[in-house]
Amino acid sequence: xxxxxxxxxxxxxxxxxxxxxxxxxxxxxxxxxxxxxxxxxxxxxxxxxxxxxxxxxxxxxxxxxxxxxxxxxxxxxxxxxxxxxxxxxxxxxxxxxxxxxxxxxxxxxxxxxxxxxxxxxxxxxxxxxxxxxxxxxxxxxxxxxxxxxxxxxxxxxxxxxxxxxxxxxxxxxxxxxxxxxxxxxxxxxxxxxxxxxxxxxxxxxxxxxxxxxxxxxxxxxxxxxxxxxxxxxxxxxxxxxxxxxxxxxxxxxxxxxxxxxxxxxxxxxxxxxxxxxxxxxxxxxxxxxxxxxxxxxxxxxxxxxxxxxxxxxxxxxxxxxxxxxxxxxxxxxxxxxxxxxxxxxxxx
Length: 348
Prior knowledge:
mainly alpha, 14 helices, elongated
């Protein structure tokens, strides 16, 4: 696909903004499409925060420009600009501006060096066109192929479930085939990095939902998914660090078969989760209708663990097996807990 919907939406919004600016005949209209591009590349919730920071940065930079330009006239210009930019950085940090202070810095430098003769018209027009561009960008995200933070977050959780499913199936296949190769520490790091990147999207979701977002079912569902994924990913790390040995006794192989059976069932369950979170939706996805059915080979492990022959196995080997079985039990519990919470947070 040569061009995506998001790119087409951004091009149309920027073009409409630029066309309106040209029709009005007002100066500095090019700031409008620039504002559209700066806020229109993400989700609606993220655009709200970017637009807020851009407007605050514009106001803060304009005020400090006027104060510095007239209040530091007797100070050499390079030193005066440096003092003004330092004040901007301090105030921007106090106001928690991550992007806005950069916009304010551009206003200070450009206003001082290029527009000092017409600050009275340049500052109001720049603010007007910036505000207009932010508004057009928000409207485009809301009206043309809407991009909601919730859709983005849930879709990416679906992709993470797909990665976890493949990893769990690979772990099970390694046990069944007694293979030396399987998911390694790099696979665990990749899953953990993806989960961390997903957590970075949650502030935009809270902004999009507004006041009381923490009580919203969407946020509660995302928190539920985050808790489950954290436990499921940590399980992968533990299994990788405690890889099974080869050429084990028949008893140990039966233990590993029970472990593999559970991993296969968990992988199949993750596939159901993945299907529910893929694509666009009008309502929150529903959890699986039936409870997680544990395989008989896993349920029979209590009998296998009571076998007296286990006492002949070296202690280090037993500790490794016990740790793996505990990790499997924790993953099973994580999925069951998540599905119970998932059902409880959905609107009745």
